[in-house]
């Protein structure tokens, strides 16, 4: 088998709706789109099988009951559980974790310990905090570096009082995978319950609870192309048998009298009330759909996009990447001190590129990375290289526009105070000059750059004259908000081209930054000195000297 993202995407009707033809959907860690088979299964349930289960025995009720138990069977295979009694239908990962936090802590003694990681989703933090408060338990955290758990150091926080270890299989904020094999080895043989939050993992790889070796695992169908409102809780049968039910109500009882009740057998003991029946039907179709895919090729496709995404974003200056392209479930997270992530999110939204901004319900982790919010782009298998490229170029355009807006604003301010405007070099790219093959090509680009130096009669004053330059050249200077701006004018195109090369690297920097800029090396690296006539090279050095003099006079 193999995998084609284009063919896969065709199975998701949302993308072929007229209003969504240009949509780049990169918010998959929040929820994925649904294939036609899932949408049809939900609709078909209401058309052909809608009745409540168990409680009645007419034809439709029987049909609905059979459907639920058939999907439970499918789910047991999907997770490789030992039996259907180990599969509990929940509303999602959050409900699964609340169930565990409530039921597993009942009967624990004050001072017993729960170990979590700093990278957990709030769904795997808050329920434990609530339970800890109720039973006087202690929560300890796996040692971390900037919020990223160092699972190799887990034994440092394990103690004879540790009763529960509940950790994510992969971060929804930064994408990194947890080393489940390492966890298994460290937790083996200990008298505690190990819970894995696989909410993010399940979309990206096959989940095998027996191979993982955990006691419990939770996931949400909507994260792996299934409907909202339905999730799975896997639990080892021996532990589920011992645990008290979480919620009480219909369906979870065998017998009720006025003072007490007897509970139903597994798994129904944990399924109080009417389940999300249509969503269960959709989940069944979703599992079947996934089983028809080449999951290995699908994951390889996602990983290829993820590497491209990280590789391209790393090229954009000023962007602080918080995620890595390796060992990652499919998430790019970044920040940038030049703008608020929400502004970029709106810009992307304007181009119909959907991403998410915020703390991603993992506040402790995002805060530890030094931010209150990040921008997250998360992948699914229907994403394509074109999606990645459109996203990256939209971000690049936003950043470039921001820079030129900034320089335009500064220019205006300069114009008011000194009668001249700093030239706008935002369209010039030093790397473009570097990558030109051969001197002729580079010279041609330099001549184009000369056009970015506008005529400035206001600075053609004796005190601005650059001495040592063969042609007439004037350089004016101004400091604004601790940054330095220079304006050049000259009769010569070559001097203007060299001036653009020089000022591109200087304007808007502090004096210290300018002093640290090694212009001479760049000048030589680009072979200007070798190919320009000595008088032209000297002109460049004369400009540099004038820059240093002007800076010296303000130091
Ligand atoms: N854990 C993780 C790692 C998640 O990413 C999410 C959802 N973002 C959850 C738990 C909670 O899932 P749900 O909202 O579907 O209950």
Structure, explained:
This protein has 555 residues and is an alpha/beta fold. It folds into 3 domains: 5-26 and 293-400, Aspartate Aminotransferase, domain 1 (Alpha-Beta Complex), CATH 3.90.1150.10; 37-291, Type I PLP-dependent aspartate aminotransferase-like (Major domain) (Aspartate Aminotransferase, domain 2, 3-Layer(aba) Sandwich), CATH 3.40.640.10; 430-554, Sufe protein. Chain: A (Alpha-Beta Complex). The protein is built from 20 helices and 19 strands. α2 (36-49) runs antiparallel to α9 (277-291). The protein is elongated. 4'-deoxy-4'-aminopyridoxal-5'-phosphate (PMP) binds next to α4.
* Alpha-carbon distance between the two ends: 68 Å
CATH class of the largest domain: Alpha Beta
At CATH level 2, the architecture of the largest domain is 3-Layer(aba) Sandwich
Provide the CATH superfamily of the largest domain: Type I PLP-dependent aspartate aminotransferase-like (Major domain)
Helix content: 40-55%
Major pleated sheet: 7 strands, mixed
> Order of strands across the widest beta sheet?
2-10-9-8-7-3-4
- Please count the helical segments: 20
Any idea how many domains?
3
Low-confidence stretches: none
